[in-house]
């Protein structure tokens, strides 16, 4: 059963961004252990590529529970093992698929999930950003995830490092057998149009450095160009010694408030003119491997 939290709204007025002299990187490095939460191993995917590179993904069951459950079922039935990255479109997305889309689906798999593109705010801790957002009436951070908001409805935003579900034309919503990660300027026009199922916490630099596809939409034109996926495993299914301990900064912590302030109005020595503003996708909750 999904844990329900009391709704908490953390208001952050513009004048609160009296930026400290420390840089965002210094604030993150100096944050105490109490400023971090550990990601549950049942919400962590470990992707291994053929060249040995490792990518760690945090799943988002609070936003797309049925799609996430499908992805976990595919993982536990080893359908990602031997899959491939088939598309790398510059400044847009990296996309991958299971090894055989014609293979029998695992028990409990939902072939036609609902459109899990937005949800009520109820049950999530929320911090509002005090800056205009061109894609939403309001934007902020809900339990560590970057979101747009309209009234009582919120949706996860398509920012760099966000993992979503590929789909065909609507009403198709995708079933989780093809996933993508945003690898460039945030394509926020995709907000509320595709299911967001997670975000990359470690290894995004490897995905971002892959050769670009030369076919339409960045697909590789020859299967020999595909980037092989050795495996995708759920951290909870690995021996404890092999599980990465990933942590995300708590948005209610003072360290996170300081981080936001520094991102909005840089006053560390390199900067001459503080911006006194920041776009939503430029303030993701910091992550670390402990």
UniProtKB/TrEMBL annotation:
<dbReference type="InterPro" id="IPR029000">
    <property type="entry name" value="Cyclophilin-like_dom_sf"/>
</dbReference>
<keyword id="KW-0732">Signal</keyword>
<dbReference type="InterPro" id="IPR002130">
    <property type="entry name" value="Cyclophilin-type_PPIase_dom"/>
</dbReference>
<feature type="domain" description="PPIase cyclophilin-type">
    <location>
        <begin position="47"/>
        <end position="231"/>
    </location>
</feature>
<keyword id="KW-0413">Isomerase</keyword>
<feature type="signal peptide">
    <location>
        <begin position="1"/>
        <end position="18"/>
    </location>
</feature>
<dbReference type="Pfam" id="PF00160">
    <property type="entry name" value="Pro_isomerase"/>
</dbReference>
<dbReference type="GO" id="GO:0016853">
    <property type="term" value="F:isomerase activity"/>
</dbReference>
<protein>
    <submittedName>
        <fullName>Eptidyl-prolyl cis-trans isomerase</fullName>
    </submittedName>
</protein>
